[in-house]
Amino acid sequence: MATGTEVGATPDEHRLRRPTPRRTTGTGAPTTQSAPRYWRSWGEPILVFLAIRAVGILLLARFAQLRETALGDALWLWDGKWMVAIAQYGYADVPYSQTDARGLHTVDTAYAFFPGYPYLVGAVAKLPLITPFGAALAVNLILGCIAAVGAARLGRVCARMMAESSPIGRANPRRTGLFLVALFAATPMSIVLNMAYTEALFCALAVWALVGVLEHRWLLAGLCTMLAGASRPTAVVLIGVVMLAALLARRDGWRAWAAVVLSPLGYLGYLAVVWAHTGSPTGWFRIQTEGWGTEFDWGRSTYTFVNETLVHSGEVAPVATAWIILSTLVMLGVAAWSRLPWPVLLYGALVVASIVLSSGLMMSRARLLLPAFVLLVPVAMVLARWRPQVAVAAMVPVVLGSAWFGAHMLTVYPHAM
Question: What is the pTM of this model?
């Protein structure tokens, strides 16, 4: 029986398992070709990601200067202050100046936030000369790079899998991966990847979990999903996808079953912690609903917001947010039409559904939809088929528009996230 690391492996993965070709220099010393390979796998995606994010940070810094505020203040607004406070003080001792959407702070309020990111920040902040806020930004910088490498790999794998079946046709896998990184770094609220928020951590774990599923690397998929479940409630959709895919691939052996067992542990473990704290098995859901008004309403709030905004609003931020929601739904349809691999499509669809079909602060939708960036694989494939100069030129207004929107939301609009 084939093992979980062999089934479904891509041609490149088989090549990676063979010994690296050796060359000899004039002195007879052996050399390898590993450096170009690692540059393509790691260096290129990280460079693309950092370059695009640098544009966003520079424009935000300019907005902050014009608005007579500080760049650092903008990078830990709203939930970011909760994350840093939990990292610094723990759940029990968060200052009462931190409040929920109603302006209240109870003994339960802090437990609305999952522990993965603040605990990671708290661990890094214990290093010499590092403050909790500095740790939060440094951690997300590294996590963003890890997510970018995962996005590049996911793009390559999807392009190969879709080469014969997708109406888009064949696209260069390497270029598809790099354009997916660029689109990820230039999503409308990608500025949050550089803030003290959980998006960078969750996106890194989710994209590598999906890579694990597509490549039948079940331990990778299970471990990443378990950690994602301790980081963000959205992980429940990733848990469902990974468990379903692992069950369908149960003939891969014990690794697939391990993914089934590991995947829900982080999410269920934290719900159990909140249960113990509140005395109720639905304690976390109550805190979230009472503090932030988030509940499943079959999309009534989103429908009302989009209609009212597009008809009556004259403000840029709400109108742009409404169009982002509609554009995401269109992208979901395009992803289905292009025959995106079903685990990636199902994950993206469930992320979109969990956001669009729930109530809460509508202006946070652009941020909350960011983990569904995997639905942009078909767009990355189209860009990869174009001439490089044309594709890069097409990305310029996307990058600038994303940078402007993020800066506007953090420094001009008062309640963006």
Answer: 0.89
